[in-house]
From TrEMBL:
This is Predicted oxidoreductase. The keyword Oxidoreductase applies. Keywords: Oxidoreductase. SUPFAM superfamilies: NAD(P)-linked oxidoreductase. InterPro entries: Aldo-Keto_reductase (IPR050791), NAD(P)_OxRdtase_dom_sf (IPR036812), NADP_OxRdtase_dom (IPR023210). One of its GO terms (cellular component) is cytoplasm. Residues 13-318 form the NADP-dependent oxidoreductase domain. One of its GO terms (molecular function) is oxidoreductase activity. It holds the Pfam family Aldo_ket_red.
Length: 340
């Protein structure tokens, strides 16, 4: 298995998004989740991405759930040395459908310190390899947040700093305080706004890019039904709600390319992303997630899939066909494109 760099952090070329192992896309057990992770790591996926906000909140919880991190702890107790572990802090509102326009983030230095200690305890580890600020706090200069994260490196609690859904300007300000190893944002065949400013800034500064939802929350795979997504938050988004039927033409394009290569839609979507990142001069590590071990193994096939110029041209046409926003809340500033 080849490796990729996110700054100075060496990881597998495809990562694993652990959010999918919690209740957000449907039920699973902790034991089944850890079995999926075991199969993924056995196959060569070593970069695991979680967050303190992932997982089902306990009744009455007013802070991040932490239950996805707790699920990981028994797995890490056995296989910590085999993986690079990333987690995040900063989203403070429970995932319960409350007012999306209300303040939902906390970037205060004291909160960064307390959130890190809480994650370390839940995960059962001494050090986090990559620690992200999950969303910028509009009331806290990003320089102060990153300064506190740099102190966590000095304390030996984290190894590298990451940011999520920041603008190019926010990234530059943060990077001036301390080198940023990776920026995480949504990037896929149907979410390409970051190519305008954010990805070029990463390439210029030597910051790695971690695309989340690289399979369009499963839509691009062609394996979902409208009934499936109606049961979770995806059905409430414009792309996978009212524009579901209109966006099927996107799936058809991906499927046509997949048939030519005897590949799956997921492999084509990931291979496109790796190819596009290389074109733009940035090191990218997509983090698709799955509750099924066979899907995780399938995703690795994208690393060896070679798309030619005609494939890329056909796939690039998707950009102009997408209906609906990538934003999952009503607040446009929740994602970087709403602040650029």
């Amino acid at each position: 298995m080849t490796t990729t760099r996110l700054g100075d952090l060496i990881v597998s070329p495809i990562g694993f998004g652990c959010m999918a192992l919690s209740h957000v896309y449907g039920g699973t057990t902790d034991e089944a989740a850890r079995a999926t992770l075991g199969a993924a790591v056995d196959a060569g996926i070593t970069f695991l991405d979680t967050s303190d906000v992932y997982g089902k909140p306990r009744e009455g919880a007013s802070r991040p759930a932490g239950t996805n991190e707790e699920m990981l702890a028994p797995f890490l107790a056995k296989r910590r040395d085999e993986v690079q572990l990333a987690t995040k802090f900063g989203i403070t509102a429970p995932r319960d459908g409350t007012d999306a326009t209300a303040k939902r983030t906390d970037g205060r230095p004291e909160y960064a310190r307390s959130a890190c200690d809480a994650s370390l305890a839940r995960l059962g580890v001494e050090t986090i390899d990559l620690y992200y600020h999950h969303r910028p706090d509009p009331d806290m200069p990003i320089e102060e947040t990153v300064g506190a994260m740099a102190e966590l490196i000095e304390a030996g609690k984290i190894r590298h700093i990451g940011l999520s859904e920041v603008t190019s300007e926010e990234l530059r300000r943060a990077h001036a305080v301390h080198p940023i190893a990776a920026l995480q944002s949504e990037w896929s065949l149907w979410s390409r706004d970051v190519e305008g400013r954010v990805v070029p800034a990463c390439a210029e500064l030597g910051v790695g890019f971690v695309p989340y939802s690289p399979l369009g929350r499963g839509f691009l795979t062609g394996t979902l039904t409208k009934e499936q997504v109606a049961g979770d938050f995806r059905g409430g988004t414009s792309r996978m709600g009212e524009a579901w039927d209109a966006n099927q033409k996107i799936v058809e394009i991906v499927a046509e390319v997949a048939r030519r290569h005897d590949a799956t839609n997921a492999q084509v979507a990931l291979a496109w992303l790796l190819h596009r990142a290389a074109q733009m001069g940035v090191s990218a590590v997509p983090i698709p997630g799955s509750r099924k071990p066979e899907r995780a193994l399938e995703n690795l096939g994208a690393v060896d899939l070679r798309l030619d110029a005609d494939d890329m041209t056909q796939l690039d046409s998707i950009r102009s066909l997408v209906e609906g926003s990538r934003n999952i809340v009503n607040n446009p500033t929740w994602i970087s494109s709403g602040r650029e």
